[in-house]
Amino acid sequence: MRIPRLALMAGALVGVLFAGTAHAATSSAPSYKPVLTKNKLYKSGKLGISVCEEPEVTSGTVDEAKIYFEAVMECLDKAWSPVVKKAGYRFTKTKFTVVTKEGTKIGTCGRFPWGAQAVYCPKEKAMYFLLSDNVIEEPTDLALMQVLAHEYGHHIQQLTGILKATDVIIAKDSESRALEALRRSELQAQCLSAAFVGRVWNSLGRPDTDWSILLKGHHNVVAALGARSGSEETHGSHASNKLWLERGFKAQSASACNTFSAPKSKVH
Question: Of 9, 119, 253, 262, which sits with the fewest C-beta atoms within 10 Å of its C-beta?
Answer without folding.
Answer: 9
